Each structure stands twice: as C-alpha cells, then as structure tokens.
Fold this sequence. Notes:
By secondary structure, this protein is of the alpha+beta class. 34% of the residues lie in helices and 11% in strands. The protein has five helices and five strands; from the N terminus they run E-E-H-H-E-H-H-E-E-H. The strands form two sheets. The protein has a three-stranded mixed beta sheet with strand order 1-2-3. A two-stranded antiparallel sheet has the order 4-5.
Amino acid sequence: xxxxxxxxxxxxxxxxxxxxxxxxxxxxxxxxxxxxxxxxxxxxxxxxxxxxxxxxxxxxxxxxxxxxxxxxxxxxxxxxxxxxxxxxxxxxxxxxxxxxxxxxxxxxxxxxxxxxxxxxxxxxxxxxxxxxxxxxxxxxxxxxxxxxxx
Length: 150
C-alpha cells in the first residue's frame, strides 16, 4: 500500500462546525486516508487516478465537498440535520419507535437503544439514530421527516 498521497486531516478553527465539542486530541492515532476533491474529480484525470488508488489501498477516503455546488448543498443539508436532530429526539422513544422499519427489512428510519447486540457477551447497544437514505441526496428531507412525524 502506498502512502504518498495520504493526507493527515487537520481542522482549522474556521472549519470547525461543532462549537460545543472539544477539539480532537492530538495523541489519538487516526487512519491515514487519501483526501479527494469532488471539484477536482469532475475535471481532473489525475484526481480520478487518486480515487482509483485510494479505493485499492484502503477502500476509504475523505471526499472534500467544499467548492462544488452539489457538495456545498450536501453540506448545507447536513448542517440542517444537525440543527433538526435535538428537536427530533425530543419526540421521545415511544413516538420514534413508530418509525422503526427493522421488521420490514429496512435500515432506514429509527433505530432505538438496545436494538442490536453490541458484543460477544450479548450486551445490547446503547445508541439510537435515524437513518436517512441517500437515494435522492439533495432531496428536502426535512419536509419528508416533518410529514412522517406530524
């Protein structure tokens, strides 16, 4: 595996979108991943080759969405979800459980605490989330969620 094109991610204060979280510790090892640009991927054969190499090396990479119109829209949508999440979880687990689609064989929708086994001892997990599919990545999901929850 080559590491020539690996980028150690750094987050400047300008990019830090989560002001209520402490900075990531410097003494915690992180995976060295390629950093690719969506803008460059649209026009650069070299960036396409880097995508191919990143896919072969680790199968993971950072995709920088900044500077690309669709990428910027995805970032705005993600920001909207972060703003919406606290209101969503205030509905309470009983209400949210109505949107658990596990029994329908779907990973979309709500997944409540204790919905999965976390370890070999059979302990249940301690996380909950609402999974939104990206079959339409630029769709207005807030209207979809509001419709479902009203």
